[in-house]
Amino acid sequence: MSLIVKICGxxxxxTLDVALQAGADMVxxxxxxxxxxxxxxxxxxxxxxQAKGRAGKVALTVxxxxxxxxxxxxxxRPDMLQLHGRETTARLRDIKxxxxxxxxxxxxxxxTADLVPLAGYAAxxxxxxxxxxxxxxxxxxxxxxxxxxxxxxxxxxxxxPFMVSGGLNAGNVAEAVxxxxxxxxxxxxxxxxxxxxxDPDMIRDFIRxxxxxxxxxxx
Length: 219
What we know:
Blueprint: E1 4-7, H1 13-22, E2 26-31, H2 41-51, E3 56-61, H3 66-76, E4 80-83, H4 89-99, E5 103-109, H5 118-122, E6 127-132, E7 162-164, H6 173-180, E8 184-187, E9 192-194, E10 197-198, H7 200-218
Parallel strand pairs: 1-2, 1-8, 2-3, 3-4, 4-5, 5-6, 6-7, 7-8
Antiparallel strand pairs: 9-10
Protein backbone atom coordinates (compact mmCIF):
# COMPACT_ATOMS: atom_id res chain seq x y z
CA MET A 1 0.00 0.00 0.00
CA SER A 2 1.35 3.42 -0.93
CA LEU A 3 2.15 6.02 1.71
CA ILE A 4 -0.48 8.77 1.97
CA VAL A 5 1.03 12.25 2.14
CA LYS A 6 -1.07 15.07 3.58
CA ILE A 7 -0.09 18.73 3.55
CA CYS A 8 -2.17 20.52 6.16
CA GLY A 9 -2.89 24.16 6.90
CA UNK A 10 -2.85 25.36 3.31
CA UNK A 11 -4.31 28.82 2.93
CA UNK A 12 -3.33 30.31 -0.44
CA UNK A 13 -3.94 29.26 -4.05
CA UNK A 14 -0.21 29.38 -4.73
CA THR A 15 0.90 27.00 -1.99
CA LEU A 16 -2.08 24.73 -2.60
CA ASP A 17 -1.05 24.45 -6.22
CA VAL A 18 2.50 23.55 -5.21
CA ALA A 19 1.20 20.76 -2.96
CA LEU A 20 -1.09 19.46 -5.67
CA GLN A 21 1.55 19.55 -8.38
CA ALA A 22 4.10 17.89 -6.10
CA GLY A 23 1.70 14.99 -5.61
CA ALA A 24 0.05 15.39 -2.21
CA ASP A 25 -2.66 12.78 -1.67
CA MET A 26 -4.56 14.91 0.83
CA VAL A 27 -4.68 18.64 1.42
CA UNK A 28 -5.88 20.00 4.75
CA UNK A 29 -7.68 23.23 5.54
CA UNK A 30 -7.91 24.56 9.08
CA UNK A 31 -11.13 25.99 10.50
CA UNK A 32 -10.05 27.07 13.97
CA UNK A 33 -9.68 30.80 14.70
CA UNK A 34 -6.88 30.30 17.25
CA UNK A 35 -4.66 28.86 14.53
CA UNK A 36 -2.45 31.00 12.26
CA UNK A 37 -3.60 28.67 9.48
CA UNK A 38 -7.31 29.36 9.95
CA UNK A 39 -9.21 30.24 6.77
CA UNK A 40 -12.61 31.80 6.24
CA UNK A 41 -15.43 30.24 4.27
CA UNK A 42 -14.92 32.28 1.11
CA UNK A 43 -11.26 31.32 0.95
CA UNK A 44 -12.28 27.72 1.60
CA UNK A 45 -14.72 27.82 -1.29
CA UNK A 46 -12.04 28.92 -3.75
CA UNK A 47 -9.40 26.53 -2.47
CA UNK A 48 -11.92 23.69 -2.50
CA UNK A 49 -12.67 24.31 -6.16
CA GLN A 50 -8.97 24.40 -6.92
CA ALA A 51 -8.31 21.07 -5.21
CA LYS A 52 -11.40 19.24 -6.48
CA GLY A 53 -10.49 15.99 -8.17
CA ARG A 54 -6.77 16.51 -7.59
CA ALA A 55 -6.39 15.44 -3.96
CA GLY A 56 -8.55 14.51 -1.00
CA LYS A 57 -9.86 17.62 0.76
CA VAL A 58 -9.73 17.44 4.56
CA ALA A 59 -11.44 19.96 6.84
CA LEU A 60 -9.74 20.27 10.23
CA THR A 61 -11.92 21.42 13.13
CA VAL A 62 -11.58 21.56 16.91
CA UNK A 63 -14.70 20.78 18.93
CA UNK A 64 -16.87 22.43 16.28
CA UNK A 65 -20.64 22.51 16.69
CA UNK A 66 -23.06 21.25 14.04
CA UNK A 67 -23.76 24.70 12.60
CA UNK A 68 -20.07 25.35 12.06
CA UNK A 69 -19.55 21.95 10.50
CA UNK A 70 -22.56 22.44 8.22
CA UNK A 71 -21.14 25.71 6.89
CA UNK A 72 -17.75 24.11 6.27
CA UNK A 73 -19.22 21.08 4.54
CA UNK A 74 -21.47 23.20 2.33
CA UNK A 75 -18.63 25.54 1.38
CA UNK A 76 -15.54 23.35 1.06
CA ARG A 77 -17.30 20.09 0.19
CA PRO A 78 -14.56 18.09 1.94
CA ASP A 79 -13.86 14.43 1.40
CA MET A 80 -13.09 13.92 5.08
CA LEU A 81 -13.51 15.67 8.42
CA GLN A 82 -10.51 15.80 10.75
CA LEU A 83 -11.56 16.19 14.38
CA HIS A 84 -8.68 17.57 16.39
CA GLY A 85 -10.34 18.43 19.68
CA ARG A 86 -11.75 16.55 22.66
CA GLU A 87 -14.59 14.97 20.71
CA THR A 88 -15.97 11.82 22.33
CA THR A 89 -16.73 8.61 20.47
CA ALA A 90 -20.42 9.50 20.70
CA ARG A 91 -19.71 12.87 19.11
CA LEU A 92 -17.79 11.17 16.30
CA ARG A 93 -20.73 8.88 15.68
CA ASP A 94 -23.16 11.79 15.59
CA ILE A 95 -21.00 13.75 13.14
CA LYS A 96 -20.66 10.78 10.80
CA UNK A 97 -24.41 10.22 10.83
CA UNK A 98 -25.24 13.91 10.40
CA UNK A 99 -22.83 14.71 7.58
CA UNK A 100 -22.25 11.38 5.89
CA UNK A 101 -18.50 11.91 5.62
CA UNK A 102 -15.51 9.83 6.72
CA UNK A 103 -13.96 11.03 9.95
CA UNK A 104 -10.30 11.13 10.99
CA UNK A 105 -9.79 11.47 14.74
CA UNK A 106 -6.60 13.06 16.01
CA UNK A 107 -5.18 11.58 19.20
CA UNK A 108 -2.55 13.48 21.17
CA UNK A 109 0.35 11.22 22.13
CA UNK A 110 3.09 11.54 24.70
CA UNK A 111 3.20 8.15 26.42
CA THR A 112 1.57 4.74 25.97
CA ALA A 113 -1.11 5.84 28.46
CA ASP A 114 -2.44 8.17 25.76
CA LEU A 115 -3.40 5.14 23.67
CA VAL A 116 -6.02 3.96 26.19
CA PRO A 117 -8.94 5.71 24.37
CA LEU A 118 -7.76 4.37 21.01
CA ALA A 119 -10.00 1.30 20.91
CA GLY A 120 -13.14 3.36 21.37
CA TYR A 121 -12.20 5.87 18.69
CA ALA A 122 -11.07 3.15 16.29
CA ALA A 123 -14.50 1.54 16.52
CA UNK A 124 -16.09 4.69 15.07
CA UNK A 125 -13.48 6.66 13.11
CA UNK A 126 -12.41 5.86 9.56
CA UNK A 127 -8.80 6.88 10.19
CA UNK A 128 -6.65 7.81 13.18
CA UNK A 129 -4.07 10.60 13.28
CA UNK A 130 -1.44 10.41 16.01
CA UNK A 131 -0.12 13.87 16.85
CA UNK A 132 2.23 15.22 19.51
CA UNK A 133 0.55 16.35 22.71
CA UNK A 134 0.45 20.13 22.98
CA UNK A 135 2.34 21.63 25.92
CA UNK A 136 0.37 22.93 28.87
CA UNK A 137 -1.10 26.34 28.16
CA UNK A 138 -1.02 25.99 24.37
CA UNK A 139 -3.88 27.72 22.57
CA UNK A 140 -4.24 25.04 19.92
CA UNK A 141 -3.81 21.23 19.85
CA UNK A 142 -1.60 20.86 16.77
CA UNK A 143 0.67 22.54 14.25
CA UNK A 144 3.19 23.34 16.96
CA UNK A 145 6.22 21.62 15.49
CA UNK A 146 6.55 19.20 18.41
CA UNK A 147 7.65 15.59 17.88
CA UNK A 148 6.43 12.72 20.04
CA UNK A 149 8.25 9.48 20.78
CA UNK A 150 7.38 7.38 17.75
CA UNK A 151 8.38 4.22 19.59
CA UNK A 152 5.09 4.53 21.51
CA UNK A 153 3.46 3.25 18.31
CA UNK A 154 6.16 0.72 17.44
CA UNK A 155 4.16 -2.42 18.26
CA UNK A 156 0.74 -0.96 17.59
CA UNK A 157 -1.80 -3.50 16.35
CA UNK A 158 -4.40 -1.31 14.70
CA UNK A 159 -6.51 -2.57 11.82
CA UNK A 160 -7.70 0.95 11.03
CA PRO A 161 -5.58 3.13 8.70
CA PHE A 162 -3.50 5.62 10.64
CA MET A 163 -1.21 8.57 10.04
CA VAL A 164 1.46 10.29 12.10
CA SER A 165 1.95 14.01 12.57
CA GLY A 166 3.79 16.37 14.87
CA GLY A 167 7.06 18.02 13.99
CA LEU A 168 7.58 16.10 10.77
CA ASN A 169 9.85 17.52 8.10
CA ALA A 170 11.84 16.32 5.11
CA GLY A 171 14.70 15.31 7.38
CA ASN A 172 12.82 13.05 9.79
CA VAL A 173 9.85 11.66 7.87
CA ALA A 174 11.76 8.51 6.88
CA GLU A 175 12.52 7.63 10.50
CA ALA A 176 8.93 8.34 11.56
CA VAL A 177 7.56 5.93 8.97
CA UNK A 178 10.23 3.31 9.66
CA UNK A 179 9.48 3.26 13.41
CA UNK A 180 5.68 3.53 13.32
CA UNK A 181 4.93 1.70 10.06
CA UNK A 182 2.26 4.36 9.52
CA UNK A 183 0.30 4.34 6.30
CA UNK A 184 0.36 8.10 6.07
CA UNK A 185 2.18 11.25 7.15
CA UNK A 186 0.73 14.68 7.85
CA UNK A 187 2.81 17.85 7.88
CA UNK A 188 2.02 21.50 8.59
CA UNK A 189 4.63 23.55 10.46
CA UNK A 190 7.40 21.39 9.00
CA UNK A 191 6.87 22.98 5.58
CA UNK A 192 6.61 26.59 6.80
CA UNK A 193 9.12 29.45 6.87
CA UNK A 194 6.99 31.10 9.60
CA UNK A 195 3.82 30.06 11.41
CA UNK A 196 1.03 29.84 8.86
CA UNK A 197 3.25 30.65 5.87
CA UNK A 198 3.97 27.62 3.72
CA ASP A 199 7.24 27.45 1.81
CA PRO A 200 6.94 25.98 -1.72
CA ASP A 201 10.41 24.40 -1.69
CA MET A 202 9.81 22.84 1.72
CA ILE A 203 6.53 21.36 0.51
CA ARG A 204 8.26 19.83 -2.51
CA ASP A 205 11.15 18.56 -0.38
CA PHE A 206 8.82 16.93 2.12
CA ILE A 207 6.77 15.14 -0.50
CA ARG A 208 9.93 14.02 -2.28
CA UNK A 209 11.35 12.65 0.99
CA UNK A 210 8.10 10.88 1.82
CA UNK A 211 7.99 9.25 -1.61
CA UNK A 212 11.60 8.11 -1.25
CA UNK A 213 10.67 6.57 2.10
CA UNK A 214 7.76 4.80 0.46
CA UNK A 215 10.06 3.26 -2.14
CA UNK A 216 12.44 1.97 0.52
CA UNK A 217 9.59 0.45 2.53
CA UNK A 218 8.25 -1.50 -0.46
CA UNK A 219 11.59 -3.03 -1.49
